[in-house]
Amino acid sequence: MKQCRSLASHGHEVALVVADGLGEARCDGIRIVDVGRPSGRRERMLRTTGRVGRAALALDADVYQLHDPELIPVGLLLALAGRRVVFDAHEDVPSQLLDKPYLSPRSARVVSRAYAALERLALRRFDGVLAATPLIRERLAAFNPLTVDINNFPRAEEFTQAPDKAADAGVRNSFCYVGSISAIRGVRELVAACALLRTPARLALAGGFAETELETQVRRLPGWNRVDALGHLDRSGVAGVMERAFAGLVTLLPTASYREALPVKMFEYMAAGIPVIASDFPLWREIVEGSRCGLCVDPHDPAAIAAAIDHLASHPGLAREMGANGRRAVFERYNWDREADKLNAFYADLLTPRPTRSRFSGKGAFPARSMRSTD
Hints:
Layout: H1 3-9, E1 14-18, E2 25-27, E3 30-34, H2 41-59, E4 63-66, H3 72-80, E5 84-89, H4 93-97, H5 105-125, E6 128-131, H6 134-140, E7 147-149, H7 165-168, E8 174-178, H8 187-194, E9 202-206, H9 212-219, E10 227-231, H10 235-243, E11 245-250, H11 256-259, H12 264-271, E12 276-279, H13 282-291, E13 294-297, H14 302-314, H15 316-332, H16 336-350, E14 371-374
Parallel strand pairs: 1-3, 1-14, 4-5, 4-14, 5-6, 6-7, 8-9, 8-11, 9-10, 11-12, 12-13
Antiparallel strand pairs: 2-3
């Protein structure tokens, strides 16, 4: 939707390698290469990675951009073969591993340290690094001088339509959460907050549950009778949910990776012209309060979440003002156009011929012909 399209629009030949089982395709001039959907985490780690690597080599590209941590060994092999390799760091993985529920605290520390060592080794041998946030960029720039942050901000053109006039009349009666639904994303606390509401507002819950057991548990909570579970929606469906909402929720729990993240849904709420109710993390508070576009709450506290929802439901004028502020902030600052310019400048720098030496063999850089991305 963003990186591949932006690079293709600047004349690069782009292929996206995926493992989703949906088959080969071509979209907006981008070739999609599918290696088949894995049956679980084990197959993804042990077999799918190899299939992705073989598909990438078959493309014979000049640049390979990797998006998944388990592809780092593939990247090292590509670099060893003299190919340009870029790693796109979506999360602070060493910190994220410390919060994995399927790892004991001791195992988590061991795995985190091992990954950090592999990351340092690899990034020093790769040609460049893209980071999803400025904080990740600051950490990784020590390992590779060509490191830039490319933030996952909304595409402004998706939100050019002005907010529905129903909002001006104060008749919206739903608030929304859009995205993957999991315990660590605060779904239990959000549904619990619904049971404490003093206004007749309802939660429009758009997305799929990460675990069937979790969905069963959440549906038994007292606040579930205030929830409209919408399941997975396409882009137009998500836009419709936001158009009917007076606020958007992003009350993720305080893990190491979430505290430093820039969740795209928060900025999409802003772009849609609705105020944000967000976790009270320092980085998020700086954005929300700095743009005067919403309220920050303790994500562990259902009463605080409910109070914020009730406040915006009871003060439609304030909600409209905050929504307008957030929309303005996205169009002026937090939008993909600015990030696309940074991405294309990054690749222009990377592909500029220069008498550099290979990380392994001492050979010069190859001339640029095409660009491929593996996911």
